[in-house]
């Protein structure tokens, strides 16, 4: 059962999400909150698999709540998915670095939302296609960060190759096929890279891959 915490300051939106999720056999909404501060407290209380959280709220916004969840060792298994009205803006980059597993725009169709929750619950990176394209395009004009490049130097060649393929949007099965290894081995390379880079999830690996220059936007 995938346990979900809803955090949004709009009661109508929370009610809509709950109505959608509660009818699914494998998804359960365990609690709701109207701001990030209450959401953080409820995350500690319920230890959900997924926190579906609005990016802009009173008291504490989604970015700060994400940062605190990611920094709390007791919440290491909690995956934060941020909801936004605006597609891509500065908040997206801040929240990815804070530890968000991904982003969804609020006009997402129900089927895609359900799929997204299941993907995030597996620990996979989750970025809406429109956000992914803009995220990649940002690195066309921005200088590469040498600090990110130094961090990737601690990876083995196979781990670097795996991270590069992940950043290009390939699944575990596709990475395994490309590298002529088993999906389990591909997953192991990714997990080891996450551990070495202190990345909370795959979304942060994607960001590091582009920041470091391991993958360039044209590679996609």
UniProtKB/TrEMBL annotation:
Keywords: DNA-binding, Phosphoprotein, Transcription, Transcription regulation. One of its GO terms (molecular function) is DNA binding. Residues 148-213 form the HTH luxR-type domain. It comes from the Bacteria. Residues 3-121 form the Response regulatory domain. The modification 4-aspartylphosphate is found at residue 54. Pfam families: GerE, Response_reg. GO terms for biological process: phosphorelay signal transduction system; regulation of DNA-templated transcription. The keyword Transcription applies. SUPFAM superfamilies: C-terminal effector domain of the bipartite response regulators, CheY-like. This is LuxR family two component transcriptional regulator. It comes from Micromonospora pisi. The lineage of its organism: Bacteria, Bacillati, Actinomycetota, Actinomycetes, Micromonosporales.
């Amino acid at each position: 059962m995938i346990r979900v915490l809803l955090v949004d300051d709009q009661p109508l939106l929370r009610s809509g999400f709950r109505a959608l999720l509660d009818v699914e056999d494998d998804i359960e909404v365990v609690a709701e909150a109207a701001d990030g501060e209450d959401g953080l407290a409820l995350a500690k209380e319920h230890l959900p698999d997924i926190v579906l959280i609005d990016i802009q709220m009173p008291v504490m916004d989604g970015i700060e709540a994400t940062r605190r969840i990611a920094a709390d060792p007791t919440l290491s298994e909690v995956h934060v998915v941020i909801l936004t009205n605006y597609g891509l803006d500065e908040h997206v980059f801040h929240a990815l670095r804070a530890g968000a597993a991904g982003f969804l725009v609020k006009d997402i169709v129900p089927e895609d939302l359900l799929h997204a929750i299941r993907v995030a619950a597996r620990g996979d990176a989750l970025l809406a296609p429109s956000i992914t394209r803009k995220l990649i395009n940002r690195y066309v004009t921005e200088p590469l960060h040498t600090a990110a490049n130094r961090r990737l130097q601690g990876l083995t060649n196979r781990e670097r190759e795996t991270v590069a393929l992940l950043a290009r949007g390939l699944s575990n099965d596709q990475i395994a096929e490309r590298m002529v290894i088993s999906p389990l081995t591909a997953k192991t390379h990714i997990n080891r890279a996450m551990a070495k880079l202190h990345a909370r999830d795959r979304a942060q690996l994607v960001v590091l891959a582009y920041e470091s220059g391991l993958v360039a936007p044209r590679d996609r």
